[in-house]
């Protein structure tokens, strides 16, 4: 996203406030009318800017969508880090990892903001923010496993990389907004059951 | 599907051969041209039957799609049962369960027959065949866990229902064609890693 932001910043005035205003208005607009079937013209008309003015700040509709998506994913990551910091043990961190991703993902993409199709596009089209989010989740999984192994909470027979990859696979249906969408009603409970299974798999 | 078949059978001549011919031709047709964006008229024209004649046997395009989907899922279930029968232990059955679903699902819906959007519709719209398939997989998971617990291969502290529900959740991304589609390239390896994690979670 850093690269993306730099590119976009060179396109228009260095007024971040206007960029932020457009993003906030676009988020509101896409929540109501969807992302896939609307155009930059529709958006411009609705927020009272000219299409040309919006194009001074963003190269395409997707670029606006990517910023919105990145903001949502950053929000989820921040909630996750706050929850992990408060967890006293690696076992507790695993529980929080599954629970926070399920709850925050459901809320941010589906209940509060209803950015369904931004979430879907980001995952389906591997937007940079989505790829970066995946990478950061893999890092988080690895860090929790390392801490748990060091503290003697988790087994050490299985190669660390193998365990980390498998735990991430179990987590993915909750972390990927596209997959999360198919289990919104049960995501919270699914998260508890999956975390419990993963914790049993990590027993020394 | 039994109910569905009865309904359809009462609509037209009791000639199952013609039904089967239509299904076979439709499978071929949808593999090439997709399911969502084609009509019964398109299909009729392509196979040289009148639209009215096809409607003697099937109430709607979806009804044809459901039979095709049911056939695919039956095929997967048969492959799965054959693989499970050959597995000497419950642990081996868990491995086969994950592996067979991943491989057979990829082949039947995506590589050999390319019935992507029938698979997607069946899962998204909860077609009877898809629901029945899910139920039968839950039963298979439960049976393997019971056998493994009786044989002393699996732990017995966790309530059986809880373990079964969690194992099914881990299996779901491979069993659900809609979710499988997003990981076709890695499904085989994902299946091994997930099965290994599940087996570790079941250790006594």
Biggest sheet features of chain A: none
Instruction: Supply Rg of chain A.
Output: 19 Å
From the 3D structure, determine the CATH topology of the largest domain in chain A. Tetracycline Repressor, domain 2
**CATH classification, class level of the largest domain in chain A:** Mainly Alpha
Low-confidence stretches of chain A: 1-10
Q: How many DSSP H or I helices of chain A? A: 11
First-residue to last-residue Cα separation of chain A: 39 Å
Beta percentage of chain A is under 5%
Secondary-structure content class of chain A: mainly alpha
**Most extensive chain-chain interface:** A-B, 27 and 27 residues
Number of strands of chain A: 0
Helical proportion of chain A?
over 70%
What is the arithmetic mean of pLDDT of chain A?
89
Reported CATH architecture of the largest domain in chain A: Orthogonal Bundle
């Amino acid at each position: 996203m850093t690269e993306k932001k730099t590119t976009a910043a060179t396109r228009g005035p260095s007024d971040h406030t206007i960029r932020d205003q457009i993003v906030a208005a676009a988020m509101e607009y896409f929540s109501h009318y969807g992302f896939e079937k609307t155009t930059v013209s529709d958006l411009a008309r609705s927020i009272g800017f000219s299409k040309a003015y919006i194009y001074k700040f963003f190269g395409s509709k997707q670029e606006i969508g990517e910023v919105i998506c990145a903001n949502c994913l950053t929000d989820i990551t921040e909630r996750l880090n706050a929850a992990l910091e408060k967890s006293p043990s690696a076992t507790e961190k695993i529980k929080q990892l599954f629970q926070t991703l399920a709850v925050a993902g459901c809320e941010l993409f589906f209940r509060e903001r209803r950015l369904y199709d931004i979430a879907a596009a980001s995952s389906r089209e591997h937007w940079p923010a989505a790829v970066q989010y995946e990478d950061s989740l893999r890092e988080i999984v690895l860090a929790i496993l390392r801490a748990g192994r060091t503290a003697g909470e988790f087994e050490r027979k299985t190669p660390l990389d193998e365990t980390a990859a498998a735990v991430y696979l179990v987590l993915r249906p909750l972390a990927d907004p596209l997959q999360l969408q198919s289990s919104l009603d049960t995501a919270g409970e699914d998260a508890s059951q999956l975390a419990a299974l993963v914790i049993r798999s990590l027993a020394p």
